[in-house]
Structure formats: structure tokens, C-alpha cells
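mind reviewing this fold:
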Amino acid sequence: ATDEDREGESISFHLMEVLKPKVPVHRMVFHEITKKAILQALNDTRQIDMRLVRAQETRRILDRLVGYTVSPLIWKKIAFGLSAGRVQSAGLRLIVNRERERIKFKSATYWDLEASLKKGTAPAFDAKSISCNGKKIATTKDFDETTGRLLTDKAADLLLLDEASAQKLVTSLHRAEFKVNSVEEKQFTQKPAIPFITSTLQQEANRKLGMSAKDAMRTAQSLYEQGFITYMRTDSPNLSQEGIQGARNAVLNLYGKEFLSPEPRQFAAKNKGAQEAHEAIRPAGAEFQLPRETELSGRELALYELIWKRTVACQMAEAQKLSISIRVGATHQNDTVIFSASGSRILFPGFLRAYVEGSDDPEAALEDQEVILPELKTGDLVTMEKLNALSHTTKPPARFTEASLVQTLEKEGIGRPSTYASIIDTILDRGYVRKGGNALIPTFTGIAVIQLLEDYFHNLVDYKFTSSMERSLDEIAEGEREYLPYLKEFYSGKTGLAEQVKAQDKNIKPEESRTVKLEQIKDVEVKIGRYGAYVVQKKNAEQLKQKGKYDDSDEIHATIPDDVAPGDLTSAQIQDLLIASEKGPQSLGKHPTTGEDIFCLSGRYGPYVQQGQVTEENKKPRRASLLKGMDPKTITLEQAVKLLLLPRELGLHPEKQKPVLTNLGRFGPYVMCDGEFRSLKKEDNVFEITFERALALLKEEKKSRRGAEVLKEVGKLDEEPIQLLDGKYGMYLKWGDVNATVPKETDPEKLTLEQALEIVKARAEQVGAGKAGAIPGKKKKGQKAAGTAEKKSAKKSPDPASDEATIAAARGATKTKKTTRTKKSK
């Protein structure tokens, strides 16, 4: 009963090969872990599909042929430990090419006018200028991204406003009459998004929940194993009849008949090879369990709710909307400017009552909003309340997020749904890409690898070539192609990979391969070294000429900090790095206690201060990173000494007899003791916090993993506290493993224990009587009280700031005991 995809089929085949069973064997197939699905699978078995097995084996062999053949070459030519993958390299090239587009981009500035207009007592509305004296005013889309100038085919028909001309129009139009030239209304319908497949689930989880592709798949796997959703690796949006009926029943019960689509909607995959698991991702079973009726919490609840909403919405009526477009003219003397305002109204929400699809535009709202305009008709006069000249600068193409990268991989036919998360995970782990907020930023090493592949093995990173390989695998899975001849041709053919590598090995020069080509950088070279990227500048040309020979001593080297993106590296930054490197470490002054020199240096991870020199006796002098906003050029001795105090030991905890420390971490300043961490409040200062204040913070209830804040403890029941929390979706009560939403009409500040008990009991009965810990005061024989297991698991869970604990331990600030795990026999 392995998963019904190529990998699952291959696992089944290998089980048969290893076990060599002498009894009849039947292949079970199911897409959800429910009683009905399992019983049906037992009654409807099949044999192992060798076509799927061969397709999977071919994929594995292809990946290894590429990896094991090309990677050693990259080790020799760039740096040891790097690798090239069949699919990951094409995905990396997408990210690198986007960075190149950003480097080539030339920004442009343009101006326009914005008016605040009003009619009578109706609210004011904003309108933007679109034309002046019959000429269209230039906007972002009218500029060439590589030159920053107006596109040549549009330049003659466009008016490019600068600040002076825009301000002149503002002065002129302050005496103008604003009249409505036209009002256009248009009704239109909006259809719901199709049910989730693997790629769209990863995209929406990233957009709406901030989950990485890896986290989304891990959470979906857990939901599948618990029987909440159908199989989560699929490229088919098709819903079974059971799924369609489940969604339609949910619409009828929750929203009413008017919100139900007149006919059941069915969806088909766009690509021919969609076969990995033949139903979309949806809530499991014939009756969809409401999110609030599950005992899920945190990410699992959020993802299940997303899947539930998307599935139900696909069987809901279309949304009915009205778009309104208004043109307002303003004329004074020789100037006539046309302003435009657009609005929309939802006439009937339809599926929008349940679900709104997210957007990759970082400036766009996730939820659908109405823009209400006053009722106007042609010829109406409106009052101009404000008129401003606005400056705009064109922006470079946005870097990929995980969501937009998955979308592009799918569009280009690179990889398959089950591989998207691993592609992103691999290029992050290899150090080819790093995350900057939600953006995927290529590193200098990542660019160097792609340069080598483009120059010598272009077909391996060509999107069409990679896509055609995926189609070949589909053909093998469908029995339309033989796998062995295909593999032999790819590797051993006259133009096969083995021959390519053999031929190119002599042509690839290591020094050239380690040089990163960046269009914006002149007169210096960016190189890849053992410890990351660095810049190289040759010394004065006249001196070199007189010397008559050239060696490494004639170069200035400077490390590029890891947080500098290739596309953001400027000549000014490079000169600062080179000057600092040539001068060598400059002492800020002497440490007041030890008398050692204190230096401000720059490394891979950015600027930092160091106490003393690196010597044989002191190989790891005390160091501390600069705080956000600190300028290494202006940092003072006093600031440096303060930084080097961290981590500070405030004293021994009175109960644990362990040191209480305060330090700075990736999530901000914090206090810690014996593996327990608490973030400092806004009013706390990491350098001045007292021992008593640190103890008070450590006593506070830790925030839940959902990020919910514990506001207060209402009381206790069965020795278990009932807490009031402020979570992502509002106020709720927590008692053991019962989470109960506080009704909107209840004032949280005046909430009594009696009210809390009533809310908790109602919720417990709703999620199911008889479950251990579900109803306050009730336990099943042999089971522990609710919350006990949760508490134990919380203690075992790694703390978000555990990397800070590791750093503190390495500095000798604290020591933790090693723990050993023992396996309990079942």
C-alpha cells in the first residue's frame, strides 16, 4: 500500500524484490486514510505497474548520471563539495537570471498628479492624471527596463512629466473646474480557483501562511497521515464524485442554496502527464470535517483550513461584480488634464464568502476589497479638495519567492509536483541561494556554478531541454518509450554526457570558473574562494610596470559579506571593503579592563568587533556582531565594549542554580536559563536589564508555537490552568488540548471563570465526547490528563533560539548536559 505515484510504485517493486514472497501479493491503492477508502482499496487491488517503476528508476538514474558526472568537474574547477543536479540546476538558473535582470535594470523617475475629489456630502475619492493636452502621461510600463528611457515606439505619443512641469500643472489647475467627462459601468463574473494540486498548495501556503514549500509538504503529510486530507502529491485538480458531493453539502449547510453553483464543477489537468495521484488535495471522506471541529492547532489547522476553503469554494456560485470607471476633466487656460478613478462593488459575493486566492505581488492585499465611488453622471461638477504632484521610480523585477518559483517551475515544465520542495531545499542547503525575507537571492557561488554550466553544458540548464526530459519520463510511464535506449543515448551517445564532460574538462580553466561576471562591477574581479566570495584589485599599474613581474602580493583582497546580494553590490561598497582591507585592522582603542586593542572588522557575516589579535595562544578572540543600524565607520570604543559584554551573565537562577544570561539573537534580544528563552519587551535594554527583571520574564508563560500571546490565567480545572490567549484569529481559551474561541459578544477583560468553563465545556463536547481530555474533568482509564503529553512534547521541542544557545555555549557562557534517547520496545 505504498503511495500511488512513481516513487511509491518503485518502492513496492523493491519490496517484492527484497522479500521474494511465496504467498499471493496484491497492490492496494488509496488516496486518503479513511475507513471507506481502505476497505475499497482492499476490494479493488491491482498488480505493480512496471511502467511507473521504470519511469521512476529512469529519473533516479538520470539524476545520478548528471550529479556523479558533472559534480566532480565543478569540485576541480570552482570549489570542493559543490554539486550540479539535473533539475536543481535549471531551477537555480531561473533565480540567477532574475538577479541578472535586476543588475541590468535602469530605474527611471516620472511624475503625475493625484487629486482628491468630492461631490456633496459623499466621501472623497482619489483620481490620478492619465493625459495632458491630448498626450498620455508616461507610467512605469512605458519605460525600457535596461535603459531607463521611454520605449522608442511610444516616445512620440507620450508626455514625460518632470518635477517642474508637474508642479506647474498643480498651480494652474488649482483654479480649474473639475467636470465628469464619462462614467462607465460594467458587470462581470469571477470564477473560483480550481482545487489544490501540489504546486498551488505550496504557492498559497507560502503567500498566505508564510510556509516554505518544505514546511507546507511536511504539514500536509501529517494531515494526510491523520486522515484529514487526501494524498498531497498530485498534479491533477480532478475531484472524485465523493469529493464534489462533500463540497456541495458543505456549501448547502453553511451558506445556503443561493451560494451553490448550479451544476457540479469538474476540473481537468492542463498537462498530459498528470497522473501521479489522480485526485486533487481536498478534505478526506464524504463529509468534510469543519476546521473548527478538528483538534488541530497551529500550522496544521491553518493549512487544513486553507484546503477546506479552497475545496468548498470550487463548488460555489460565481461572484458577481460591478466595475466603475470615471474620467474627470480639468481645464485652465492652455492646460487640460484628464483624471481617472476606478472602483468596484461586489453585487453577490458567491465563492468569495469562503475563499480569496492570494497574490505574488507584495503590495497587493490578499483579500478582495471593494473600492466604492460616489454615484456620478456625465456633466457633474466635483470639488477638488487636494491636488498633489507625485514622484515615482520604476522598480526592478521582483526576486523569486518560493511561491513564484514553484509557479514558474510548473509553467516551464521543470520537475514534477513531488520535486518542487526538494529543489528549493537543495539549492538553499548547497549555499547557492539564501533567503532575504521571503525572497530567494542567489549567492556568488550559485552564479559561478550556473556560469560554468551555461558556458560548457548549456543543455543541462536549458529550460526546454529539462522540460523535454520530463516529457520523456512521462512517455516511459505511459509505455510509449523504452527506458534503456533513452538512458544509453543520454549518457553514452556520440553527443552524450560522458563525451561532453571528457571533451570539456581540458577547456575549463579553474581561475576563470572561479570569477563571477557581474555587469555593474568594473576594474575589480569577484572571486569564489574557500571561505566565500571576495574581491581582487590589482595595485597601481605604473608600479607593476616598473617591477617587471606580477604576483599575489600585487593584489588587494577583501571579503564580501554574505548578506550582500550580487545584484546590490556597488563599486562604492567594493572600494570601502578594499580600503579597509589594505589599511588592515584599525584599533578603536584599548579595552578598559584587559588593555587589549578593540577592532571593527568585516567578515562573511557582516561587520563585527573583536577584542585583541588572533595569536597562537588566543586563536578565537572574543567577538560580537554589530547591532542592526550600526555603521562600522562610526562605531565608538564605548559601543564596542558594550557589545563585547554579550552574552552577559546576570546571576544564578535561585531554583535551577543555572546561570541567567542575556544576549542578542536572530529574533532580537532575549534572556535564557537552562534552555528556557524569553524575548525582551520593547521597554527592556539588553545591556541594562537587571537580574530581577530577567527572572520575572523567565516566569512568564511562553508564547505558543502559533505565536499566540497568553494574556492571563482565568482559573484552574483539574489542576490544569484555563488560559486566555490572543491568537492569529482572535481571542481564545486554552485548557489542556481544548482550544475554544471566545464569542465576540464576550468582553475578554471581564471574562469570569464560570463563563470560561461554559465556553470550554461547549467546545469539548463539540469536538467529541469520550475523548481523553476532551471534556473537562473526564479521563479515560489508562490515559493521562489532557495537556500532560503536550507539556512533555513541548519540553522536548527545540527552542526557536536554540542556535543562540549553541553560540553562548561555544563562548563558554553556559554548559548543557548531553541527553541520550532510548528506544522503548512496543
Remarks:
- Residues 361-368, 768-826 have pLDDT under 50 and may be disordered.
- The chain has 24 helices and 26 strands.
- The radius of gyration is 32 Å.
- The CA atoms of residues 678 and 698 lie 6 Å apart.
